[in-house]
Every structure is written in C-alpha cells, then in structure tokens.
Amino acid sequence: MYWPERVRDFLVGAGCTEVQTYSFTSKKMLDLFKVLPEEIIEIENPVSDEYQFLRPSLVPNLLEVLRRNKDIREDVRLFEIGSVFVKGKEGVIEFDGLVVFVNVKQDKGQDSFLALKGISDSLFDSLGVTDDWVDDAIPLEKAKQWRYQLFHPFRRAEVKVGDTFVGLIGELNPRFSKAFSVKGRVSIFMAPMETLTRLATEEHEFQEFSRFPAVTRDIALLVPQEVRIEEVTNVIEQSGGEFLIDIDLFDIYEGPLRSRDSEASEHLDAEQKSLAFHLIFQSKDRTLTDTEVERFMMVIKKEVKDQKWEVR
C-alpha cells in the first residue's frame, strides 16, 4: 500500500481533496457515457437501480460529486483512488484507478488544464519518473472509444512514459459538463494505479542536481493538426542547445473554436492547433545570463519558423 498512500499524500499536499464514491453505477449513467453492452457488468442482487452495475470508470461518480457541489464558488480539485471493473476472458477484473479533477470557474480567467498539467507533472516527479510526455496523435479508432469520448475532442492526449501508455489527460467534453450542470471548465487526469506503481518502482538513472538557478521561457506555436507534439518537442530539443534541460507542454488547443490563449475574438483555423511550452535552461557550472537565454530562444524560433510553424 506504500505507493497509493504516497500518491494520496502528494495530491493532498497539492491542494486536492480526496473523495470516495460507491463502486456501483446505474444503467442511466452507463447509457449517458455510451458504455458498450459487452463492457457492462451487472450485479445479481442490486440494492437499487442506482447501484445495479459495477462501475467501469471513476469519472461518472466524480462528476456527480461536482454536480452536487456546483454552487461552490471556489475552484475545486478532487481525486479518487478506487476500484474499477472490466470484463476479462476469465471473468471480472478489478483494479485500482486514479482520477484527478480540476474545476476552474470561468469568471476567474484561469485554465484548468494548466493547473492539472502542473499537478500531474509534479506527481510523476514525486514518483521518480522524469521521462513522461503527452501524445496527442490518437488514432481514429481509439478516439471513438467511450473513455476517449469523455474528453474534449480538441483538448485531450495520452500520457506516456517512454513508449508505455500510462493514462489520459485533457479537458472534459462539454456535453458532460452540460449534463451534470458543472460550471466552469473541468480537466481530468486518469491512470491505473498499477501502472504508476510499476513505473515508480523501476530503477531510474540518477542525475546530479545543479546548484545554479534555472531560467524558464515560454513559447507558443501554431502548427498543422497532423503535426505530433513529439515532433515539435524534438525540433525544440535539437535546436535548444546543451543548456535546455526540460520542455514542458502546458497548453494545447485544437480546432475551429475560439482560442483561449487570448481575450481577443481570435479563431484557430480548423486545420491548426496551438501548443504552448515552458522551456527550462540551466547550467551545471554557472548562472546563465538573460542574453544567453535570449540567444538560445532566437535559435529555437528560427528553427520553428523553418518548419513553417508560427510563433505566437
């Protein structure tokens, strides 16, 4: 039980509130989320119609918690570690899942995805996992699955460590926000605890910390929809020089909807997406100057423009 408790301690320290919901759900809820009939697990003697089936995801019950607390004006950060049930070849498989919700109220001008991405990045760091990244190149067949449909079609990605699929992160599909009368934007991170535990217990290469301060710069880009996040980070990494130690995606937006990176009535082209990154520079033997960092940024921007991508 060490790693689940460690995850709990971290998330509570990050300002999240733990909730515990029933491991059951209703036919109405399963229909709303379009869970396939072959994935539904019915209980033989349910207490009531509301608890007739075993839940295939933690998300619906957490949305119900948000609905019941919809009048709370403050931002809400919730998480649950609990049992999820799926059908296997030899019967029902039970495993612990993790879901983290961040609900930011619209009138505060804050970004739930940015807040959640910061939490998930720090969670991986706390587990000793440093090579996590997000992949927005989701195949069409996967994107049609109901678990992927939980998310906004233009603001979702798979979380990976190396080539290993870990979970999903993104903004809640607006139709579920409407269905549960949730105010503001909701972003979700979900992953099996077994995967997180396995990654945390693997051996990791130790890297000596620098005693010199890091310098952070932000860059926002417009790229064609078909360009993968991995392609963009590779271009930035290859042009950033030896002092670029980390590239952190903190915002992604796709599609013909209004861009939330600006208060102006700017619209993204349907064939474009906006990506924003924190770029972190650091030397092991000295403090980098602003002039040096700006020179690194100029090289990166030139390489980006050579790819026919737009720097915003």
Itemize the secondary structure elements and their pairings:
Blueprint (H helix, E strand, L loop, with lengths): L1 H12 L3 E2 L5 E2 L1 H6 L8 E2 L10 E2 L4 H10 L7 E13 L2 E14 L7 H15 L5 E4 L4 H4 L2 H4 L1 E11 L2 E9 L1 H6 L5 E8 H9 L13 E10 L4 H12 L3 E11 L17 E10 L8 H17 L3 E2 L1
Report on the structure:
This protein is an alpha+beta fold and 312 residues long. The chain folds into two domains: 2-201, Bira Bifunctional Protein, Domain 2 (BirA Bifunctional Protein, domain 2), CATH 3.30.930; 215-311, Ferrodoxin-fold anticodon-binding domain (Alpha-Beta Plaits). Helices cover 30% and strands 32% of the residues. The protein is built from ten helices and 14 strands. It has helices at 2-13, 27-32, 59-68, 112-126, 140-143, 146-149, 174-179, 193-201, 229-240, 290-306, and strands at residues 17-18, 24-25, 41-42, 53-54, 76-88, 91-104, 132-135, 151-161, 164-172, 185-192, 215-224, 244-254, 272-281, 310-311. The strands form three sheets. A seven-stranded mixed beta sheet has the order 1-5-6-10-9-8-7, with helices on both faces. Strands 12-13-11-14 form a four-stranded antiparallel beta sheet. Strand 8 and strand 9 form a beta hairpin. Helix 9 (229-240) packs across helix 10 (290-306). The longest helix has 17 residues, at 290-306. The chain is globular, with a radius of gyration of 21 Å. It starts with a helix and ends with a strand.
